[in-house]
Each structure stands twice: as C-alpha cells, then as structure tokens.
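agent: user wants the full assembly modeled, not chains individually. Plan: 1) parse entity lines 2) check alphabet per entity 3) run joint structure prediction 4) return tokens. Steps 1-2 passed, two entities, 610 residues total. Proceeding.
--- entities ---
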Amino acid sequence: MSLIEISNVTKQYNGGDEVVEALRGVDIAIEAGEFITIMGQSGSGKSTLLSILGGMNHPTSGEVAMAGVELYRLPGEKLADFRAQNLGFVFQSFHLIPYLTAIENVLLPLAIVKMKGADKNAAAKRALERVGLGNKADRLPNQLSGGEQERVAIARAIVNNPKILLADEPTGNLDSRTSDEVMALFRELNDAGQTVVMVTHNPENCRYSDRSINLRDGLVVGQN
Amino acid sequence: MKLHTIAINNLKRRKAKMAFLTIGLSVGIATIVTLVTLTRSMSGDIERKMDEFGANILITPLSNGLAMNYGGISLGGVTFDQREIRESDLARIKTIANHKNISAISPKVLGGVKVGSHDVLLVGVDFASELKMKQWWQIFGAAPKADNELLLGSDSAKVLNVGTGDRIRIKGEEFRVAGILGQTGSQDDALVFAALPKAQKLLGKEGKITLAEVAALCSGCPIGDMVTQIAEKIPDAKVSAIQQVVEGRLKALDQFKRFSYAMAAVVVFIGSLIVFVTMMGSVNERTTEIGVFRAIGFRKSHIMRIILFEAALVSLLAGFLGYGAGMGGAKLALPFMAEGKNTLLAWDGSVAIGAVVLAVALGLVASLYPALHAAKMDPTEALRAL
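--- prediction returned ---
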C-alpha cells in the first residue's frame, strides 16, 4: 500500500453561474520516501491538488488516503490533528509569523503538542541547524534574507517529523542561486528519508525529484 | 512555545493598536468607576447629613388633648404629666423588618420642675443616644456622666445664673452642672437635661417616656415603611416622619443614580463596540497568519484561545487602568458634585473587583464573534497561495 493514494479525485468550484472543474478525476500513488514534483501551468489544478493532499480542501468526489487513513472521512477537528501529526507545509511566500523569531516560528507546530519546553526547544534548534540557520535562531523574519526565510519555513515544516512534507512553489520568490540551495536542501531531506511532494512550475526543479507528475486542465497528463 | 506565547508576542508587536484598545476600554471602565464611586460617595454624604439632621422619626403618645411643640414639631396632644409611652415598649422598635436602618433611638421624658424661683422644663434623656443624634451640640464643660449631673441649655444657664461645675437643687436633690450647651437657636436652649432614669424618678414617671426620637440612616431608607412598621409594634403611640429635606435630596440622588446607570450602559455599549471593531480588524489583518496556524494543525479552539487570551490580557490591563483613572476622576469631581467639603471618597474593594471583572467580561464577550470568525476561516482561502 502506498503512503499516499489519490483515487479518482475531482474538485469543482462554483463561480456564480459557472462551475469550474479544477480536478477532473486524478489518480496518483506516492510511495514513502519519494520526492515528487507536480508540474503544470497556472490553472492546471496543481495547487488545488496540494491543498487536497494537505487536508485543507475537501474534494468534490474521490478518495484521498494517507498512511492508511481516509483523510476526508476524519470527523471535524481530527483532520487538523492529522495535519499536525503527519504533514509539514512549506508555503510559497514563506508565511513566517512576523512577530516571532526564527526559532519561535519553528516552534509553532509544537505549540499544540504536549511536550516539555526543553524538548520543544531542542527539536526546534535541531531543525534550524538542519537547514543551516542554527546561528540565526533569534532573528525576526525581517532580519533574514529570502533564502533564509525559506529555510526557516522548511525547518518549521519538519520540526514535528512529518510523514509527508508538502511544498507549494517554494522557490517561486527566490533567485536562481538561492533556489538551487533550497532545492538541494529538499533533496538532502529526502535523502534522509523524508517524503516530499512539491508543486512547482519551474522545470529546473524536477531534476532534484524522483518523479514528476504533469497536470493539465485538471488531469494527469504524464509522469516521468 | 505555548499558545499564550503567540498571543503575548502579537500584543507586543501591535503596541499602537493594543494601546488604543486598552485606552478605549479603560476610558469606559473609568467612566463607570467614577459614576459608581460618585454615587456611593454622595450616598454616604447624605447618610452622614441625615445623622446631622438628627431624628427623622418621632414617636409620641396617641392623644387628642392639648397641643405641645418641640422645635416647631407637633408632638401630639398631651400634657407633661399625662399619658406616656412605656419605656419597655421601645425595645420592640428593634424588632421591625428594617431594624438595621435604625442608627439611634433617643427616649425622652419631659416635665416641669422648679429650680429656685424659676419654672424650667426638665428633659430626661439617654445622653449616649442623644449626643449621637445631635452632633451639632457644642458643650462647654462635659457631657453628664453621672446620675446627679445636668446639661443646661444656654438660656437656662443664664436665667438660673449658673456655670459649669455649679450645683443646683431640684426637688430637694443636689445636681452638678457638668456642661452648658452653646446657643442652638432651638428649644434646647431653654431646657435642662438630666439622665433619663433620674428625670423619670424626679418626675414620678418611672418606666415611662414622653416621646422618643429615632434616627434612621441610609440613602435608600424606606422611612415611610419604617414608620408603619414601628406603628404596628407600638400601637398606643403616634409615629410620624420628619423626612422632607432628606427625601428631597434622596430623590435627587436617585435621579443621579439612574442617570449614572444609563450612562454606564451607554459606555459599556461603546466599550464593547471598540473592542469588537478592534479585534475584528486585528483578526482580518491576520488572515494569512490564521491560515498558517490552521494549515499546520491548529484546531479551531486553539485559534479561539489565542484571540480570547489576547482580549483577556488587554481587558485585564484596561480594568486596572480604568479603575485607577476612575477613582482619580471621582476624587477630582467629588468636591463639585457633593455639597459638603468633607465628603469622603468611597473606596470599595468590590468596585475595584467589579471594574476588573467587567473589563475582562466585556473584552471576552466583544471578542467572541471575532474569535469565532477567525476560527472558522478556511485555511485554503486564508493562504490563497494554496
């Protein structure tokens, strides 16, 4: 059984009189330890797919199973608990909390976890060191460069040892050199066993992944 | 890192907005504290004034005989040596429903006696309650302490030509003049006061009294009800109220109280609106942030706890500041509001606790909808990027 199984997932949005079909029957299986990039043009449905994978967007039909759990059959806040325990998110615009320092941002997912304060701090420090920012733990986001902010966002996503790391255009706001550094970091994490699912429109990023899934008009049109 | 760390850090970052919220709420709480404290202080002032006015209920024997005056107040139709009330009946006054509002009961026995060649009106009083009731009395010398001591009105002292320490004889018994009253402009100037038991004995009215004055204190005293209650307990007596002046002031105070409560209600409403608008604005500004929280697994209840904790913290601060400012305002306003210069500011722990509790309750209630709104945010829409 695959770590992630997406079966015949559709997603429709009601835009007034018009119904927009963002996904039109997507089937994908992702194994544990894989590094997947989801490619596609704007409007291809890749971000919708990622939000469905992230347990934040109920599909119109179809099934999404992760680690043997039917995600959208989970009642109420159990879905939030699933995200907290199994998923890590890296957002395109980093979305760091501006009034929290780097280490406090990394600590965020642990704020709702029952753990000793010292253990939380140790985990956050480890995560920051893993992304090469151990020495900038007390900086506020506006005191960090774009690449560093992205690294803090990655550290925040991995601090709770998630089964799956989801990334939405993580290099979208970075220059090419910093993009390479960030992609190398994702590769490094994947090499250490982390499953990574990344949405990107940059074909350059595909060389870091094990497999690339191409979406067009809400359908999988190819994998390589 | 705990949820409250997020709330505290957010408050630190949004200092200006939170200061505005704190000030807005503080002003509301301060206004309420000032109004409540002023009302209470003025009530206290009136209670003290009622003390100074002396008695406000008179108990005289039922009579249809001759008229008798006491300070311009009709005491009913009795003569000095006719019907009296039994002193023991007075104990029943303390059993009325509003007995807690009774500050003092001053029984009196009246009778004409001869001192030398002069006829004088001897008044037997219980000096302890009499002095409590007539705080305006100025005594030269001392108040009588022993049975054979007298207190003379200023005119009596002049007519009898005696001073403090002198001795006079009444019905064969010798008395020492312990003190002389300063001019009062009332009937007291022409009286000779003796201890009640002694006067009763001299006048041959042991166990009897001619009248009793009752001082009932408190801003909301139901004087009319008390008169009825006393009349029921002592059916042989005529019970009447002297309350016009005080009641007038009480009515004015009552109006002020109602005005204060109306003002407080308006202020509470405005305060709630300030909190609501500010918190709603703050939540809308933090849409992305809340989306991140939800995306990384925060439950709706976690989001609500963050927002409500922030509101509680700001409201708590506003409660303390508002109480301090309100008491300051009351202290400044009191001299203009109260008639007497000696009106005391009513410091009351319950007002302090009430102010803080009200502030926190107000903050929480007004933030409830913004917190719910934040918790219900769709993380996908909040983040937009996803």
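agent: reporting back. The mean pLDDT of chain B is 83. The two ends of chain B are 26 Å apart (CA to CA).
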